[in-house]
Task: structure prediction
Amino acid sequence: MPEADPGSPTESQPTISVVRRSWARVTLAWLAAIGVDLLFHAGLFAEIFDASREPSLLSDDVLFRRIPVAYATLLLGIVALAWLLQRFESTGESALGFGAGAGLVVGAMGFGGLWTAVDITGLLVVAGTVVLVAQGIAAAKVLTSELGTRPLSYRVVAFVLSAFLVGQVAANL
Result:
């Protein structure tokens, strides 16, 4: 059996281009999930996530300063989802179901656990979980889409901008 060249990629050692494509896909999935976040939190569900309705929520200025932490944890979740999708070779509709399931588990555990310790309404628990399910679906869709073409990045950016605009319109109706 011939020895493998130590510099050549193996099954357990992906090429640099594969790693770059994976990180590009994760980044685009993260942006899509941020778009979902903007659509719901800043728009459709803005009244639910309002400190005057939910007294246990922090003030808007404190919440705004903590957004980078929330988006960093969202990125961590998407990296885990990408790994799981790859590990279980999930594609198409099964990937969307996997993303929805991951969002449901994380949302139910996180918001359900929070509900047991903090005075929040059941509506906030359900709304927060719905957002995480939608983020999981959006991330799974991007993670399993073809990356080789630029239109995917353009579609993700267009989605994020559209989600933000729709959210703003919905919040101000």
User: Anything to note?
Assistant: The chain has a mean pLDDT of 87.
